[in-house]
Write a structure and sequence with these properties.
two-stranded antiparallel ribbon, single chain, 5 helices, 10 strands, alpha+beta
């Protein structure tokens, strides 16, 4: 884990781990509380059972990329990383707690969005993608399920949306760099990725167009 951006300390010395609020293919997400400040966070945890499954090295590398990407970003429409801790055989990512749910669920619940609301959401997303690309980061899994609302918007106001889940992201070393890995969510994949060709940051713009 050397150089992976992790802090080696006891998670319980700084945070109280609360109930599960989400699950992914390689992690669970808990609501947690910082003992010093009382602030509520969302903490992504890789469990000891998963680590014992021989996935430790690959998952540590994946988390190291996610941490590097999140620590490079400071944008109102990108989730913020507070802490990254490795301790007692577990990995913890302590992140901003967003309480409004997925954009996907919001749209399904509303049935339809007005042009004004849709354009406001997409304007914020476009700003975040432009910022991310300027930092040399490709997200590679942009979709409504990876866009969370900060909170349920008050009546008459548009929701604030943030990009989450940088687990499949890649940090490019040069502005003209390309990538080759085939990953992401099929309905949002650009043609060059589906054809197993080299691709650039433009694949995020294809996903943006699908959204």
């Amino acid at each position: 884990l050397a150089g992976g951006g992790f802090t080696e300390t006891r998670f319980g010395d700084h945070y109280d781990l609360g109930p599960v609020i989400g699950r992914g293919s390689t992690s669970t997400v808990h609501r947690s509380t910082q003992t010093r400040s009382g602030t509520t966070w969302a903490t992504k945890v890789i469990t000891e059972e998963q680590l014992r499954g021989g996935q430790f090295s690959a998952l540590a590398d994946q988390f190291a990329v996610e941490i590097g990407a999140l620590r490079s970003c400071d944008h109102p429409n990108i989730i913020k990383l507070e802490d990254a801790i490795v301790t007692e055989g577990c990995l913890y990512l302590v992140m901003e707690h967003l309480q409004g749910g997925e954009l996907f669920d919001y749209v399904v619940k509303r049935g339809t969005l007005s042009e004004a609301e849709a354009s406001a959401i997409l304007r914020d997303l476009a700003s975040a993608v432009r910022y991310m690309h300027a930092k040399g980061i490709i997200h590679r899994d942009l979709k409504p399920e990876n866009l969370l609302l900060t909170r349920e918007p008050p009546c008459g106001l548009f929701p604030e949306v943030k990009i989450i889940d940088f687990g499949l992201s890649k940090m490019l070393t040069e502005p003209t760099s390309i990538a080759t890995s085939f990953l992401g969510t099929r309905g949002y994949l650009a043609p060059e990725m589906l054809k197993r060709q080299h691709y650039s940051k433009a694949v995020d713009m294809w996903a943006f167009g699908v959204i």
